[in-house]
């Protein structure tokens, strides 16, 4: 019991702290060695930007009842700094019951196409739209996400490298009500991980709000696929294509104040995580090198954290009376942390507010992962998503 409890806590520490530190050290060492080779007369491996020609680009948006933001979204795409004759926008309406299709058509010009269909889920919409795209590169984005004016070029320039199969952009979250909302610190942390994984040419999963793929590499998705933005890039990476991260390709998304809806969204993603392992089993093949290492360290162990935390807490009670480790203090620390999370849920004020809020976010996120796992085991999580009530960013953000 003593060893098992210690291992559970050590694995939590590794996935959240050890892996990022190892990744940063690995990246620093690799860049230092490349610099030494260059100084010794080797080739200059720095990427060079080409502004003389741009690949044709298709922006694909899957939408379900997005009348509050779809017109602004289409206008945002058409206003991107990209050659107009090499840009098109495809909007797939997934069983819309409002004016989404009407407003999307009204906002555009000849470069905008709207395809309507029954409610089948985002994966089905994408599988239907992408083969219809005329662009060599497909940019996938969400209806309520606004793209920075330079995002298209920032993504597209990577495809001058024939080894690049997909590019992941930077999704920036904000909240109009709370400047330091719960998700901000965790999202910054995840962004750093994507940055370092991108340095290895293998970002593990994309931001659904902004990523791009070569059209011919886009896989046919099962209609039951829950998290396409993980399955698509991982399948491409498993075929040895590079997937860099581009921090200058920025998109903006507003977070929600509805905690229950947000918990449901995270639980849905949790179920999709486990489904993805079944859809892309090659991520567990050690022969894929860094892809397998990153998946186990960054994703698989992270998804298991709720069970590690639960096991360590339960084991700490009988161990609190002795053992080679002061388990009494460990138990007290765990109980204090969960108490802090409860205070965050109840809206703590004062100096500990931000700490309590972060603790609550961490506990809530892991609880949602556990619920998602249960949904996956029972097979009760559908592919069709329920939109979260978020408005499009204001003019200042975009």
Spell out the blueprint of helices and strands.
Layout: H1 2-39, E1 57-63, H2 70-78, E2 87-94, H3 100-107, E3 112-117, H4 122-129, E4 137-142, E5 146-147, H5 151-156, E6 166-174, H6 182-199, E7 211-214, H7 228-237, E8 245-254, H8 259-279, H9 290-319, H10 327-345, H11 353-378
Parallel strand pairs: 1-2, 1-4, 2-3, 6-8
Antiparallel strand pairs: 4-7, 5-8, 6-7
Helix pairs in contact: 1-6, 1-9, 2-3, 6-11, 8-11, 9-10, 9-11, 10-11
Task: Provide the descriptors you would attach to this structure in a database record.
398 residues; Spore Coat Polysaccharide Biosynthesis Protein SpsA, Chain A; 11 helices; globular; disordered C terminus
Explain this structure to me?
With 398 residues, this protein is α/β, with parallel strands linked by helices. It folds into 2 domains: 158 residues, no CATH class; 201 residues, Spore Coat Polysaccharide Biosynthesis Protein SpsA, Chain A (Alpha-Beta Complex). The chain has 11 helices and 8 strands. The protein has an 8-stranded mixed beta sheet, sandwiched between helices. Strand 2, helix 3 and strand 3 form a beta-alpha-beta unit.
């Amino acid at each position: 019991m003593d060893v098992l409890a210690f291992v559970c806590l050590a694995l939590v520490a590794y996935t959240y702290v050890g892996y990022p530190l190892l990744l940063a050290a690995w990246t620093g060492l690799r860049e230092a060695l490349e610099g030494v080779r260059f100084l010794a007369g080797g080739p200059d491996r720095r990427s060079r930007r080409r502004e003389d020609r741009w690949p044709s680009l298709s922006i694909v948006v899957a939408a379900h009842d997005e009348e509050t933001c779809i017109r602004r979204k289409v206008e945002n795409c058409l206003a991107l700094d990209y050659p107009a004759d090499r840009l098109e926008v495809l909007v797939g309406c997934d069983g819309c019951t409002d004016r989404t299709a009407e407003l999307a058509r009204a906002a555009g010009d000849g470069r905008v196409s709207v395809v309507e269909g029954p409610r089948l889920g985002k994966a089905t919409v994408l599988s239907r739209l992408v083969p219809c795209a005329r662009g060599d590169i497909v940019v996938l984005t969400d209806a309520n996400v606004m793209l920075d004016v330079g995002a298209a070029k920032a993504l597209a320039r990577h495809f001058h490298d024939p080894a690049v199969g997909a590019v992941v952009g930077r999704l920036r979250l904000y909240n109009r009500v709370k400047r330091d909302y719960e998700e901000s610190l965790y999202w910054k942390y995840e962004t750093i991980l994507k940055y370092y994984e991108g340095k290895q040419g293998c970002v593990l999963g994309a931001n659904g709000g902004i990523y791009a793929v070569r059209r011919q590499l886009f896989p046919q998705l099962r209609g039951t696929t829950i998290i396409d933005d993980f399955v698509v890039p991982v399948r491409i990476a498993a075929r040895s294509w590079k997937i860099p991260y581009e921090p200058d390709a920025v998109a903006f998304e507003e977070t929600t104040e509805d905690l229950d809806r947000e918990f449901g969204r995270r639980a849905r993603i949790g179920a999709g995580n486990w489904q993805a392992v079944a859809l892309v089993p090659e991520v567990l093949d050690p022969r894929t090198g860094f892809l397998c290492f990153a998946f186990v360290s960054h994703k698989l162990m992270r998804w298991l954290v709720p069970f590690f935390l639960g096991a360590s807490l339960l084991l700490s009670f009988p161990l609190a009376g002795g053992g080679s480790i002061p388990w009494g203090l460990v138990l007290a620390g765990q109980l204090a942390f969960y108490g802090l999370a409860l205070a965050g849920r109840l809206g703590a004020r004062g100096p500990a507010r931000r700490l309590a809020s972060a603790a609550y976010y961490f506990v809530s996120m892991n609880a949602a992962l556990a619920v998602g796992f249960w949904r996956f085991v029972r097979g009760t999580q559908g592919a069709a998503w329920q939109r979260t009530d978020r408005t499009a960013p204001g003019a200042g953000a975009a």
